[in-house]
Design a protein that fits this description.
Length: 110
């Protein structure tokens, strides 16, 4: 695709293209993470270790598991979709912001 093709697209078509690109980038990042995880597991196994033994542990709670953070943001229409506010923004969050909502609009009130 070249710049001339982009110039011929409507705003809605461009937004749709951005959404498709975001989804593809997310898919590729997931594939990369899975490949990296498999490689780390292979290296650990070759050394006779578990991944935890190889990498150590981080942010553990009293029970020994990872500390789970409470959600900070909630989808305006589907309350089951939440985000803790760390890491990559979920698609629903980005879409809400692109459609005029603010981060404050999506905050879970305490």
């Amino acid at each position: 695709m070249n710049v001339d093709q982009l110039n011929d697209m409507s705003r809605e078509e461009l937004k749709s293209l951005v959404s498709v690109i975001d989804e593809e980038l997310e898919r590729r990042e997931q594939v990369s993470r899975e490949k990296a995880r498999a490689e780390i597991e292979r290296i650990a196994a070759d050394a006779g270790l578990s991944v935890t033994e190889l990498l150590g542990t981080s942010r553990k709670n009293a029970a020994g598991g990872k500390k789970k953070l409470p959600p900070k943001y909630r989808h305006p229409e589907n309350p089951e979709l939440t985000w803790v506010g760390r890491g990559k923004q979920p698609d629903w969050f980005k879409s809400a912001i692109e459609n005029g909502m603010t981060k404050e609009d999506l905050l879970i009130e305490s």
